[in-house]
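Marked as duplicate of an earlier ticket. Keeping the data here for the record.
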Amino acid sequence: MEQNKPLRFRFHGSGSTLLVIYFLNLIFIILTLGFYYPWARAKLIRYMYGEVEFEENRLQFHGTGNEMFLGFLKAVSLVALLYALLLATQLTNFDWIRLAGIFFFLLAFAIMIPFAIHGALRYRLSRSSYRGIHFGYRGELKPLAMIFIKGIFLSIVTLGIYLSWFEVEYRKYTLGKIRLGNATLAYNGNGAELFLINLNGVVFTILTLGIGLFWFLKQRNHYYINNIEVLQNSNIYNLKTQITVTDIFTATIFTYATILTLGLALPWAVIFSYKIYINNISIENGFNPNTLEQTEEEYNDATGDDLTDMLDIGVM
């Protein structure tokens, strides 16, 4: 392995293979009245992970449908309970009870978000591996919840201005707690810098009648990826992305093509987007995966992972 040679990621997924997975999953979900969904999700994740290559080795996902089914039942029960309580309060004749019910419902969902993210990170990373070395998440729920409480409150008070600092603090904490064996991640983003990127991007997008959106998305992607570091044995290795405005524009066109094809082009659009984003990422400065050592324990409670799916939360 040459020193200082960037090591690139590769995604080898196939649109036709993904179409078959989508189709079979849909058939089984319909036939089982939805009960097959956790197994369908596990199968999809396992395929997408297995198509990511780094230095001639693929990622692996070891989660099972059984694990996700148990998590699915817990997640559905929790969400159903919240909706039942909300409905019960709305059926009363007292305005203050109805208002209190809505407030409690929104508060419970706000609290559920960090709980779901924490559980999802613990489960998904614990059940993922590279070269037999497991990933892991060593974050704790309380500090993550405090980041969300402070972030949501200040974002509301500042009419959204604090969102950039909120995003950076969230990434610093979650990425900083991720491990791959004896390697750890770190995020060096800055709230003020991200705020300027967001501000310039929004203004430029408006002034160009939407055309500047692709430049804006490219800037955000570069800022996110290029501020991630991998730390191992006192060495620091930087992640870099070379994604271009043209790449993002092309991926967007592919996504809109799914509408024209009534959804049939969706698998190819998904695969193309993954290739655009993943194939442009590399690790610089001679990172050596041969020096990775196992350090993480398994965790098989998929409740948080299912909650993030139900709430449509993008964890990372």
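See parent ticket for discussion. The CA atoms of residues 136 and 296 lie 6 Å apart.
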